[in-house]
Task: inverse folding
């Protein structure tokens, strides 16, 4: 967890077993910003959102919020 101290984000790009189930309670206390980019889509987005993380599953369509006034 040392690498998460003051980290802006966690980026997962491997399926190695040791990274499959981190303690996100510990991670949230160490990180500056709670953002997760999951390149393997192995984490539960709902669970992470409930713990206060912003979660991005890479390759998974994300809802887009748009202000239609800025598109004109």
Result:
């Amino acid at each position: 967890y040392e690498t998460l101290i003051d980290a802006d984000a966690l980026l997962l790009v491997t399926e190695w077993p040791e990274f499959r189930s981190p303690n996100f309670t510990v991670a949230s206390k160490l990180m500056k910003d709670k953002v997760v980019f999951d390149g393997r889509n192995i984490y539960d987005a709902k669970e992470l959102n409930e713990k206060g993380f912003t979660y991005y599953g890479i390759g998974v369509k994300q809802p887009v919020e748009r202000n239609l006034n800025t598109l004109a």
